[in-house]
Amino acid sequence: MRDTRESRLLLVLLIAIAFALITVDIRGGEDSPVDGARQAAAAVFGPVEDGVATVVDPVGDAVSAVRDSGDRHDRLATLEKENAALKARLGSDDRNRSRLGQLDKMLKTAGAGQYGIKGAEVIAIGAAQGFSWTVTIDIGANDGVKRDMTVLNGDGLVGRVTTVGPGTSTVLLANDPDFTVGTRMEGSDELGFASGQGDRPLRVQLLNGKVKVQKGDRLVTFGSQADKPFVPGVPVGFVSRVDPSGGDLTRTIYVTPFVGFTKLDIVGVVVEAPRADPRDTVLPAKPRPTPTPTVTVTVTPSPSAADGQYQQEQ
Questions:
Q1: Between the CA atoms of 87, 92, 94 and 97, what dihedral angle is there, to the nearest 10 degrees?
Q2: Nearest to 139 by CA among 59, 71, 47, 39
Q3: Which of 207, 230, 267, 272 falls between 20 and 30 A from 115, CA-CA?
Q4: pTM of this prediction?
Q5: What angle, 0 to 180 degrees and rounded to 10, lies between the N-to-C axes of helices 5-28 and 35-54?
Q6: CA 164, CA 141: separation in Å to the nearest integer?
Q7: What is the DSSP string of 24-65?
Q8: 228-245 b/e with 16+ CB inside 10 Å = b?
Q9: What are the residue ranges in the chain where pLDDT is below 70?
Q10: How far apart are CA 175 and CA 210, in angstroms?
């Protein structure tokens, strides 16, 4: 096609229609009117995205090696052994070292929670401005991924699977305005519901309007019925602001997520839930406060001062 005014207008029109369909699709969920087209698109374009992402990716095989960890989710020692083998297979450049660190941290998180995961790489991002916060990962139905599975990384909750193709899946991120997850506060067990606010902290509505909350308090996922879409115990974030209660039945707090949604790379889809709720065990240990050094000053009188005092006493 020639580069004419008409071809450019047609291109702009097609892009606008595509964005409109994406919006209708995400907002519609399981009842989306374009669900059939969505599945077809995932089947057609998913392999293309996956192929482009893995052509020169030396970490791809490493992540693939942990995709079957769901079959051995209760054997942390096995995961650690696999991880050690992966380290030997990766290169030594800065990018691979960074991704290796992400993989290592994710495996430890999955082991702490006894989550059976399938490792994946983020290969595409959605239109965050004005539409939805989504990413595409390089595993799908052929890898055992299903709709409404929890997605995490080494830091905590990433999101949930919304669309599944044969070899790729779409993940709705936890900071999306349409995202809601049940939460439970560390220690007090107070329940609430967290909603995404884009690039702002999550907004959490606590069911108890009189609960005492402080900055720095941490939250994990409460879990869903039959563990879909959320398994319990996944770290969510920490309290960064608390609204005055005002005598309301509920209380609003704002939570900074543990996960950085603008720099996602290595993630894991939870394909097998833990046998028991891990409660707060997946949260990292709280940093110990650094003791304030104290200085003791001892004054020693000079010889001349001591002699003067002796003469006065005489």
A1: 10
A2: 47
A3: 207
A4: 0.68
A5: 110
A6: 6
A7: HHHHHGGG-TTHHHHHHHHHHHHHHHHHHHHTT-TTHHHHHT
A8: bbbbbbbbbbbbeebeeb
A9: 1-94, 127-131, 246-247, 289-314
A10: 26
